[in-house]
Structure formats: structure tokens, C-alpha cells
């Protein structure tokens, strides 16, 4: 087992990983930018190293600075958390080159699943259902038109290196293709330095359903059921839950088997998530694979009574995993508490928290790095916490979430708490029958955060 792990991240996920390391008797090293010098992940680490100024590019994304910190402190391994360098193949390889274990898959696997067009091709070969579309990247506008005709409109143009909806365009007619092609290429090039596009059939009334998998170095791969991540704004998740309210047992079993098939095909190691799009006809298709721990991993932890970070560390150290067992009759849900104004198109709201009070109670969990007087920097993601509840049914979980949200007080900045309060009262949300377009017609009402 590792003696010392450097956590190449910040905020709540850095704290989350620290907690597990301490429980496992492993020393931790925090890295931080000058903007985070007073953060809790710095305070609670055994050692801490400043790696640069506030800009992520010069700190949390600086491979050289992080590797230097790792060598200075003599760590055995690096845990990347999520975001930043967590899915960076070059960083995984750099860790290996310096004799430091990267807690996650190797560079070859990250490369094979990181590029969406390559991943789709791999999944076809593995026998995992994929959305009908182009074979690889499109070489021209003419090819895009030809593929769209073959698949049938509407279609989606998607950036191969994309994420967060950037470089993505819906196209409903041939006449719309030229403008969509040009704007998608430009946006993808600016956002990712890669203007490559591919085309897919537009899936009607889609839900976003993902399967959590864990794989060790001995060929064992198991899945830990699904998470429904359908409630999103601009392709960014806001609510995650499990089980998915509309998935049948038969579909769940097939989807889980396909996720295992996907992981085995690329010789996967560690925690990962195979993401599917599930349509109104009950069909599902591979969308992408996230080669890291997910923000929403606590939902699965509540359902299986397992520490997924501990499992990641165990696997990275060469340990074997056993099949996981879901607790019968359990439902879990997570909402993301972001420093954003839901009444103003979710505009980020950095600043100083004047008062901070977390909810409590049976099966109520809050993962956060925020506290009263904490100053939320403007340089990073706006998420300041996650509220996770579980119970014997979806109805009981929604009621518990409502109660917990009423107790959650954050003063000094705007947050998504009022949005979640409204959502938990919404009859359509309570029904469980909706698509990723849910928020396009959701009424926030006139309530204002006090």
C-alpha cells in the first residue's frame, strides 16, 4: 500500500480524497495556488506545496510544478481527482516516467477513450451499441451532408475533443448544415485546440444515464449500477440519482453488461464511468467514457455502502476487487450546490461567504470545502458543495432533500439552493418522466434568495 499520496486537485474533491487516505493510514500532500492558500484542503493535509499563481493553467494544470512537488515530498502516488489533469494522458505518462503511480488508467487507455470519435469506433468493435453516425472524423462539409442524409435528420455535429456542449450543433435540415459546420469548427478549435468534428443521429427526448465501473489489474471488472444525470443546464449536471426512475431491470442488466464489456475491451484500470444516452423508445447508446472518479460518485457510495476512493487506491496499489452488492430498496440523490445565480441564467457568483450552515440528519451527507468567511475564488469551477441524501424510495428521498435544502444556508453569495428547492416541488420532476431538455421549460417562479 502507498505511504504518501499527492492530491493534484483542490476544493471538495481534495478534501474527500484526504479523508479516505487518513482512514487508510496514508500521508497526504496538498498542492495549492496562491488563491487557495487558506483552503481547507491545505489546512488538513500532512504537507502542502504552493504550485503557482491563481490561474489554473499556471498551477493545477502545470504538470511540471505538480511533478516537482511530488518529487520534493517523496510521494508514491498521485490522485488527480476530477477535472484539471484527471483525464490527461500526458500527465498519466509523466507520472509513470517519474516512477510515481497515477491513480487511474494509463496513458494508452486515456487516449483510446478520451477522443470521442476513437472511443466510438472502439465501442463498435466491442459490440457496445453506439448512436448511428459517421465513422470517425468528418473530412468535409460534403461528407457531413452525405452522412446526415444516411442517418436521417435531425443530426448533431459534435467536437471530437469536446465537453460542456462546446463545438456541438443540432442540424434539422440540409440548409442549416453549412452554418452549423463553420460555427462548430470555430468553437471547437478555440475551446480545445482541435477543430475535428463527427456526426451523430439526434436522439429524441434523451436521458443521460451512466454506469459506474471499477476494474483492477487482474482482469476483474464490475459495475455498480447506474446514475441518472438527466437534469442539466447547458450540458452541465445539476442533479444525479440512482436508480434511474424509468429504467427496467432488464435494461439495467444489459447496460451494466455493456459497460463491463467496454472496460474490458480497453483493458481498463480503476474507477470509470461509461455514459449512455437513453431515448424515449427505451433504446440506449454509448456516449463517452469518463476515465476518472465522477463528481456524483457519492450517489453510488450511498447505494452500495462502499468508499469508491478507497477502492481506487486499493486497485492502484495492485489489490483485487470483489463483486459489489447494492443495498436492497435504497434510493439516493445528489444536488450540486454552485455559487451561481439561478435567477440570472446561473451566472457565477464568487465572493465571500458571510454565513454557512450545513443540513444534517439521518442519511444526509454534505461534501464541501466551504465555510463561513470562506472567499470563493473566481478562477475555478463554481461548485462549492454537494448535498447527498438517501432513503427507501424516490418519494422519501425527494421529501428528505426538500427538508435538507431548507436547512442549507449560504449567505453572502448567490447559490443554486433556491433552484433545487423549486425543483423538488415540481410535479414533472417528481414523476421521473423527463428528458435533458427539462430545464428549457422549467419555471423558477418569482422567489428570490434572501
If you had to describe this structure to a student in words, what would you say it looks like?
This protein is α+β, with helices and mostly antiparallel strands and 450 residues long. It has helices at 11-23, 40-43, 63-73, 89-97, 107-114, 116-126, 141-151, 177-192, 249-265, 297-304, 308-316, 394-407, 417-425, 427-431, and strands spanning 4-7, 27-33, 47-52, 77-79, 101-102, 155-159, 169-171, 197-201, 207-215, 221-228, 232-233, 236-237, 239-242, 270-278, 284-290, 331-338, 340-341, 347-348, 351-352, 355-357, 364-368, 375-376, 383-391, 409-411. The chain folds into 3 domains: 4-103, Rossmann fold, CATH 3.40.50.20; 132-201, Dna Ligase, domain 1, CATH 3.30.1490.20; 207-440, ATP-grasp fold, B domain (D-amino Acid Aminotransferase, Chain A, domain 1, 2-Layer Sandwich). The chain is built from 14 helices and 24 strands. The longest helix is centred in the middle third of the chain and has 17 residues, at 249-265. It is globular, with a radius of gyration of 21 Å. The N and C termini lie far apart (49 Å). The model has no long low-confidence stretch (mean pLDDT 95).
Amino acid at each position: 500500500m502507498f505511504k504518501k499520496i499527492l492530491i493534484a486537485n483542490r476544493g471538495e474533491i481534495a478534501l474527500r480524497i484526504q479523508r479516505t487516505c487518513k482512514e487508510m493510514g496514508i500521508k497526504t500532500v496538498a498542492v495549492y495556488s496562491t488563491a487557495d492558500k487558506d483552503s481547507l484542503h491545505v489546512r488538513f493535509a500532512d504537507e502542502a506545496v504552493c504550485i503557482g499563481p491563481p490561474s489554473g493553467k499556471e498551477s493545477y494544470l502545470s504538470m511540471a510544478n505538480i511533478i516537482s512537488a511530488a518529487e520534493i515530498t517523496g510521494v508514491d502516488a498521485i490522485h488527480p481527482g476530477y477535472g484539471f489533469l484527471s483525464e490527461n494522458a500526458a500527465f498519466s505518462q509523466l507520472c509513470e516516467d517519474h516512477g510515481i503511480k497515477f491513480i487511474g488508467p494509463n496513458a494508452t487507455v486515456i487516449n483510446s477513450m478520451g477522443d470521442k470519435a476513437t472511443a466510438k469506433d472502439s465501442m463498435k468493435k466491442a459490440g457496445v451499441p453506439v448512436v448511428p453516425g459517421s465513422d470517425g472524423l468528418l473530412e468535409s462539409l460534403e461528407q457531413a451532408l452525405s452522412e446526415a442524409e444516411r442517418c436521417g435528420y435531425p443530426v448533431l455535429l459534435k467536437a471530437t475533443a469536446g465537453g460542456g456542449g462546446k463545438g456541438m450543433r443540432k442540424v434539422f435540415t440540409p440548409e442549416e448544415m453549412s452554418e452549423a459546420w463553420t460555427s462548430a469548427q470555430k468553437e471547437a478549435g478555440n475551446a480545445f485546440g482541435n477543430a475535428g468534428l463527427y456526426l451523430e443521429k439526434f436522439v429524441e427526448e434523451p436521458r443521460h444515464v451512466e454506469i459506474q465501473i471499477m476494474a483492477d489489474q487482474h482482469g476483474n471488472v464490475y459495475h455498480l449500477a447506474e446514475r441518472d444525470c438527466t437534469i442539466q443546464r447547458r450540458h452541465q449536471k445539476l442533479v444525479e440519482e440512482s436508480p434511474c426512475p424509468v429504467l427496467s431491470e432488464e435494461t439495467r442488466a444489459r447496460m451494466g453488461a455493456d459497460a463491463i464489456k467496454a472496460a474490458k475491451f480497453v483493458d481498463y484500470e480503476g474507477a470509470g464511468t461509461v455514459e449512455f444516452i437513453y431515448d424515449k423508445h427505451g433504446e440506449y447508446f454509448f456516449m463517452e467514457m469518463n476515465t476518472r472518479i465522477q463528481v456524483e460518485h457519492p450517489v453510488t457510495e450511498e447505494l452500495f455502502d462502499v468508499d469508491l476512493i478507497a477502492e481506487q487506491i486499493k486497485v492502484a496499489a495492485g489489490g483485487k476487487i470483489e463483486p459489489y452488492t447494492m443495498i436492497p430498496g435504497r434510493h439516493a440523490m445528489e444536488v450540486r450546490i454552485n455559487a451561481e445565480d439561478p435567477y440570472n441564467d446561473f451566472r457565477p457568483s464568487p465572493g465571500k461567504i458571510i454565513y454557512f450552515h450545513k443540513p444534517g440528519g439521518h442519511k444526509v451527507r454534505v461534501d464541501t470545502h466551504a465555510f463561513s468567511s470562506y472567499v470563493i475564488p473566481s478562477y475555478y469551477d463554481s461548485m462549492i458543495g454537494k448535498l447527498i441524501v438517501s432513503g427507501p424510495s424516490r418519494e422519501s428521498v425527494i421529501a428528505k432533500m426538500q427538508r435538507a435544502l431548507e436547512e442549507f444556508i449560504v449567505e453572502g453569495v448567490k447559490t443554486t439552493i433556491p433552484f433545487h428547492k423549486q425543483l423538488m416541488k415540481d410535479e414533472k420532476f417528481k414523476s421521473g418522466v423527463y428528458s435533458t431538455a427539462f430545464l428549457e421549460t422549467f419555471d423558477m417562479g418569482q422567489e428570490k434568495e434572501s
